Amino acid sequence: MMSGFPIQNSPVSARDAPASIYVAPSLVAALDALSEYGAAGAPLAGGTWIMRSPIRHEPLRSHYVAIGRIAELTTVRIGGDAIEIGAAVTHAALAAALADLPEFAGLAAAARGSANPAIRAMATIGGNLATSEFAAADCVPTLLCLDADVEISGRDGRERIGLADFLAVRSTLAPGRLATRIIVPRAERKTAHARLPLRRSGDYPVAIVSLSLSVDAANRVQAARIAVGSVEPSARRWPRLEAALLGRPLDAAAAARTAAELTDEFVGRDSVDAPGWYRVSVLPGLVRRAAIAALGS
């Protein structure tokens, strides 16, 4: 099965194709195969990043383990205290699963608005988090705001770490280790996700601002988690802005003005789609948009 590798109009030639693609019938089988392949193998779910490796002049792995048919990895479980998202859940499926949960409006918006409909139907949440070279992943900053944990599985068992810690080690995970689940606690909060693409659709965002806020009856901010994506090589929280908003009424214009005073801590990445200085310069406007969306939630 060539899951994730479209045959027509594909940049992957027969010469470039991997030696094997194993369709794992279970998580245990997938972990066994990944462990046996070692550095020559990699997991394959939606394949939306892997299939473009030749365009980026990156070699494909010799062996891929397809995990898109494993029920455990393609399920969203909504509990009273947390939601659990399988790593092979697509963006489209995640957006649909969260549609009636206002506290996850930001995550639903990130999943619903990323890339284009065709990509959203294939791209997975696990791939979004695990691809360290992809700076513009929509779901990463919003999950940072939601205090998400990542479950990592291997032949020797499972461990659970915070998302920020996972982002720091994702490119160095040992062969045979696989992100299998994202766990997000439930809480009463206002969440929002704002992105700036250069075109209306089908484009990666120049910059992203996601936020999660708790406010009191007077609309004063009691807790704040704000994250920025696509500006630097990896998404991260914005602690100075979070601290500046605490105890103040939530006001979109005021939040944008405060953000403008604090953008000096970011060093924007230069790329063919936008220079680094521009990515940083649009952050206050995105903070304003995110605050307006949160106020309306």
Describe the structure.
With 297 residues, the chain is α+β, with helices and mostly antiparallel strands. The protein folds into two domains: 73-185, Uridine Diphospho-n-acetylenolpyruvylglucosamine Reductase, domain 3; 190-295, CO dehydrogenase flavoprotein, C-terminal domain (Enolase-like, domain 1). It is built from eleven helices and twelve strands. The chain has helices spanning 27-37, 91-97, 105-113, 117-120, 125-130, 139-145, 163-169, 239-245, 252-262, 276-281, 283-295, and strands at residues 20-23, 41-44, 63-66, 76-78, 82-86, 149-154, 157-162, 178-185, 190-197, 205-215, 221-229, 236-237. It has a five-stranded antiparallel β-sheet. A four-stranded antiparallel β-sheet has the order 9-10-11-12, with helices on both faces. Strand 11 (221-229) and strand 12 (236-237) form a beta hairpin. The longest helix has 13 residues, at 283-295. It starts with 19 loop residues before the first strand and ends with a helix.
* Spatial order of the strands forming the largest sheet: 4-5-8-6-7
Poorly predicted ranges: 1-12
Question: Which bin fits the share of residues in helices?
Answer: 25-40%
Strand-residue proportion: 15-25%
Q: Which CATH architecture of the largest domain would you pick?
A: 2-Layer Sandwich
Count the domains. Answer: 2
Named CATH topology of the largest domain: Uridine Diphospho-n-acetylenolpyruvylglucosamine Reductase, domain 3
Organism: Bradyrhizobium quebecense
Protein name: FAD binding domain-containing protein
Features:
297 residues, Uridine Diphospho-n-acetylenolpyruvylglucosamine Reductase, domain 3, Enolase-like, domain 1, four-stranded antiparallel β-sheet, 11 helices, 12 strands, globular
